[in-house]
Amino acid sequence: MGRAVIEAAAGRGDLQITAAVDRADAPGVGHEVAAGIVSTAELTAGFAASDVYVDFTSPASTRAAAILARERKLAAVIGTTGLDAAGEAAVAALAEVAPIVVAANFSLGVNLMLGLVRTAARALGTEWDAEVVETHHHAKRDAPSGTALMIAKAIAAGHGSDYDQVKRHTRDGDVGARPRGEIGVATVRGGDVIGEHTAMFFGPAERIEITHRASSRAIFAAGALRAATWVVGQPPGRYDMLAVLGL
Question: What's the whole-model pTM score?
Answer without folding.
Answer: 0.75
